[in-house]
Amino acid sequence: KKAFLTNETIIPYEDVLPPYSSLKVSVRGITDWSAGTQLLKNLHTPAHLPEAPQDLRTFVHKVQDSVAKIYLRWSPPEKPNGEIINYKILYCTAEVEEKCKSEIVNGKVFQLTIENLSSDHLYRFKVAAINEMGKGPYSFGVTESLQQHKPTPSLLVVSDKSLIKLDADLQEEVEVLSENSRVQWATPLLKNSSFAWMDMNSDIYLTDM
């Protein structure tokens, strides 16, 4: 916290601050007799390119023997250096890296599902953050084989009043069935990472984990 007394309308601030640091500035006029009303303003220092996203991880769901889909998840950059607008995901087969495809998701989203991938190939994935200054560097690439089923770490909690799916990776829970209904039975997890269950109306549902 610093105070300046000046008769100028511009003051150079010489301390070095990180990009997009929050600042609270107050200004008031002073005469020989009194001080005027204080004007408050919240500011940010100029933005800079964001750092790379962290902790890129993959989960594989095999739909058929030759076709798979993959769930990508990541964490925001340690230093976003501005408000993250989008994330750009780049993926390609490890054998032909120059023929990559890309996807753009909102900056509030930290996961992406990519479907219809061939389980015969190795795929390489990486993600970059985008703010008002542009796209930052890509994360470390992750190479994944789609031959093996590697589902998201989830737990299904079944009671006579509700079904709740716990996502251990995101540490989130999703209510599959509300307490207004009752569960007659639920199957163990099926090969395709789904399970079937029946409510008290004898309606059968299939839910993905």
Automatic annotation (TrEMBL):
Organism from which the protein derives: Cherax quadricarinatus
GO biological process, one term: axon guidance
Gene Ontology terms for molecular function: ATP binding; transmembrane-ephrin receptor activity
PANTHER family in UniProt: EPH RECEPTOR A5, RECEPTOR PROTEIN-TYROSINE KINASE
Entry keyword Transmembrane: yes
Primary localisation category: membrane
Domain Fibronectin type-III positions: 52-149
Protein name (record): Fibronectin type-III domain-containing protein
